[in-house]
């Protein structure tokens, strides 16, 4: 989700939180496939081997650019399995897995003739639940009026929870709505209209809205990771981006802080990034949320090539509440890997902390 934030133009690419559709034409299927359509023989290991031989570096772009053909031959399941296996094998990092699963979710809704029922059993919890996010976003984007999506989004959430009890809903709906409106206030109205359904906590929808807001601020397509060479359609305080969040009602602010933190991120300068989170102009809530999210980004990046997370030196200088959110933040990275069956060394990561924090850190993952 977060590896591609820093580019040669010193801009940030986002997945998701994640994460997570303007280039969907690349993946639009040339014809609708009835549910009974036979899938050609599709060997995931062979497909990955072929892609690896034909390409150098990680496989994000080859999978993305060949997704239409991969889905034609392997169907939804084959596309999900191939992407997940590429992630588990270390051929793509978490942020790219998130983006690909998001795109597969978009295409899956179209593939099933805009009927979500055949696809609720898919592995939507892989790579930070991004398949589910893509489905939700496509439900919104398929409607003439975004509010027409509300009943179907509620039904999809209810059906999904029959397969994955407790999973959160509507993050993708927030993304899709913001992509259409380009106005956060209007997009948040869609989120609030989802009240009274199976999801009682609408904060993940709010996060979806502000995640897409952050993508637009940085001129990146949240699905494909491509730079958008046109003026941004949203505004923000470039020196103190989290102050933008304080212009929204209190119930939206934490979601906004968590997602606009991507603008604060300074790539390899993790110490400087943590200092940016401590900007005295920010509320304490903003500072803590920023610290937690940056820790999640740092964790996911580090675990792509390592089995544990070494604590930056600045962490030991922080007060206890900030050290605690560091722990909860790096845990996000570990959980993102564990949902795909990739084991990393939490205990060694905890042992990087000062003695007074180690036990709390170990207990946090139990």
> Roughly how many Å apart are the termini?
24 Å
In helices, the fraction of residues equals 55-70%
Topology as a string of helices (H) and strands (E):
HHHHHHHHHHHHHHH
Number of helices: 15
Mean pLDDT: 86
Radius of gyration based on Cα positions: 20 Å
> Could you say which structural class the secondary elements and strand pairing correspond to?
mainly alpha
Shape: globular
Q: What's the total count of β strands?
A: 0
Quaternary status: single chain
Q: Biggest sheet, in brief? A: none
Low-confidence stretches: 1-39
Strand content: under 5%
List the helices and strands and how they pair.
Elements: H1 44-54, H2 60-65, H3 67-88, H4 94-111, H5 126-141, H6 150-163, H7 171-181, H8 184-193, H9 203-217, H10 250-264, H11 270-277, H12 284-305, H13 320-338, H14 346-350, H15 355-364
Helix pairs in contact: 1-3, 3-4, 4-5, 5-7, 7-8, 7-9, 8-9, 9-10, 10-12, 11-12, 12-13, 13-15
